[in-house]
Amino acid sequence: MKKWLFNPFVYIAGVRALFIGWGIMIISAFIAFYTGYHFDGALDVHSNGHPVHLLKTFFELFIDWSSLVLTFYILGRIVSDTSFRFIDIAGTIALARWPMIFVVLVTFLPVPGLHLEKPSIDEIMNMMSNPYFILMTILILPLIVWVFALNYNAFSVSTNLKKGKAVITFIAGIIIAEIISKMVLAYTLHLLFKYIIYVQRIFSETFTDRIKSH
Amino acid sequence: MLKKLPHICPSCASPLRVKSLICGNCATEVSGEFELPILASLQPHDQKFILDFVKSSGSLKLMAEKLKLSYPTVRNMLDDIIKRVEQNEKLSNSNKK
pLDDT for A145-159, tens place per residue? Predict the structure, then answer.
C-alpha cells in the first residue's frame, strides 16, 4: 500500500502512466477552472483573484509538465550511467502530479479574501485567522510533500539514480523547471490569449454576419 | 533448507575457489583448484532473474509483464546485477594478479 501511494512507478510507467496522469490532470484542470485556481509554475497552484480561461489552465498544465519532463530528462542523461527511455520520464512525471487533484479540491473551502489580487494587511490577518484557512493549510501541506515525494520517486525510478546523486539532481531539476515554466508562461501566455481572442472574434463576426444575412 | 554457496572468504574477503567436487551418484571425488563462475558468485535471486531474462529471450518488456513490475524497474534491476557482476569480475581479476 505504501509503495502504491509513494512509489507506484515500480508497477506503472511509460505510456500507461502517461495516460492515467494526463487523465487526472485534465480533471484537475476542470476543477481548478471552476474554483478559480491555476497552475502558474512547475508545481504551483495559485489564485490571482479572477477566473482563469479554461484553455489557459490546460496550457499552464502542459508547460508545467513539459518543463519538468525536459529538465529531468536532460539532467538524467548527464548524471545517470544507465540508458533510460523518454516515455518513462514523461509518463511517471505525469502520474506523479495526481495528488494535485486533492489540492484543487481543497480550494473549495470558503476562505474569505483568498481570491483577492492585492489584499490589505487587515484582509490577510482576517484570512489567516479563519478556521477554513487553517484547515486548508493543514490539508495542503502533506499533499505538497506527497507530490514532491512522488516526483522524486518518478525521477529516481526512471533514471535509476539513487541516494545523494538523485537528491541533488532532483532539487536542481525542480528549481530549473520552476524557472523555465515561469519564464515560458510569462512570455507566451499573452500570445496565446491574443490568438484566442482573435479566433473568438472571427467566430463571433461570422456568426453575426450569418444572422444579419438571414 | 537451501544452502547458500559461499563465494567470499569470511577471513580475508577474497573470492573462494572450489577444492573438490563429488559425484552425487557414486560419490567419486575430484580434487583440484577450480574457479567459481562469475554467475555463481551472485545472490540466488539475481541468478533467478538472469535465468528468467534468458528464458524471456532477453526482452525486458516480457520480464516486466511476468514480474508485474514496470519497465524501468526491471531495467534498474538488470543494471544493478550488471554492476555486481562487474564488481565481482574486478575482485576476481585483482586476486589473479
Answer: 999 999 999 999 999
For the residues of A164-183, what is the DSSP string, one character each?
A: HHHHHHHHHHHHHHHHHHHH
Please state the pTM of the whole predicted model: 0.85
Residues 6+ apart with CB under 8 A from A204: none
- Phi and psi at residue A112, to the nearest 5°: -70, 135
Nearest-5° angle of CA B33, CA B12, CA B47? 65
Could you say which residues from 14 to 73 on chain B have a Cβ atom under 8 Å away from some Cβ of chain A?
68-73
Dump the DSSP string for A103-129: HHHHTTS--TTTT-SS--HHHHHHHHT
- Say if the Cβ atoms of A157 and B68 lie within 8 Å: no
Could you tell me the three cell numbers for A47? 489564485
- Is the CB of residue A33 less than 8 Å away from at least one CB of chain B? no
Q: Which three cell numbers stand for residue B73?
A: 524497474
Contact flag B73-A92 (C-beta cutoff 8 Å): no
- Whether ipTM > 0.85 holds is no
